[in-house]
Amino acid sequence: MMETLFKNFNPVPEKTRTETCRSCIHRERWHFGSKIIQYCGVLSSNRTNNKKLKITCNKTACDFYKPEGTEND
Ligand code: SF4
Q1: Among the atoms of ligand 1, which is closest to the Cα of residue 43?
Q2: Residue pLDDT, tens place only, 12-46
């Protein structure tokens, strides 16, 4: 039974994205005194005061990723 159940099952390949938020045009750097916190200009969050998602440079890019140098529509 189990052999026939998974016989034709082909798992979806894992996303192998190499881009990070570092090179995305939506990355925003906010200065708080000497501290810099980075936010996403597209994705929102209920956990931050400005309602923007807090990110880091090395975060794997999401589907809204646009590389620097491209136009923002
Ligand atoms: S979370 Fe997505 S849209 Fe936001 S800065 Fe990173 S890659 Fe860009």
Answers
A1: 4
A2: 666 688 999 999 999 999 999 999 999 999 999 99
Give the amino acid at 13. Answer: P
State yes or no: pLDDT of 5 exceeds 80: no
Determine the residue of 19, 60, 65 to mutate for testing ligand 1's pocket, defined as the one with the most ligand atoms within 8 A of the Cβ atom.
65
Indicate whether this model's pTM tops 0.85.
no
- Kindly list the domain boundaries of the chain, sorted by start residue: 18-63
Q: Is the CB of 52 under 6 A from ligand 1?
A: no
